[in-house]
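FW: tagging you since you asked about this chain on Friday. Here's the raw sequence from the shared folder, copied in full. Didn't touch anything.
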Amino acid sequence: MNAKTPNAIDTYVGSRVRMRRQLLGLSQERLAEQIGVTFQQVQKYEKGMNRIGASRLQRIAEVLSTPPSFFFQQDESAPLSLAGLEIAGNSDPVAEFLQSKEGLALNRAFMKITDTQLREKIVALVKAMATAQEGRDVATDDSKQDSSFV
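HL: got it, structure written out here
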């Protein structure tokens, strides 16, 4: 491993810090101020370029209102491992979505809805829309294949 290459675990933990910070709408500057470092240091943590010490990770967890274990969570059914931590090419689509502008906006709005039944109805609506979209995509693909044989 090259000395300049971030460790996969450091990169993963940093990406979890970034995801949680963005989900809460907290800037790098504000997080840095609350944990006693520069915003450049927060950038390095989030990219995995610098390792986060245990006491600093504990403070970040307090500021971000989450347990320290959050930064290491992968699939809840599997024990923590190095498998899948290679970020390039093997990224988690859910994490990618949560880090996108749309994902953050959707998450923030959804979290403001306190009515459980309404939240369930919204999830059902989105699932129905995705199913309808898949049906249209398949129909479009089928019509493209049919026209190519003409």
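FW: The radius of gyration is 20 Å.
HL: agreed, and Residues 76-90 have pLDDT under 50 and may be disordered.
FW: great, closing this out.
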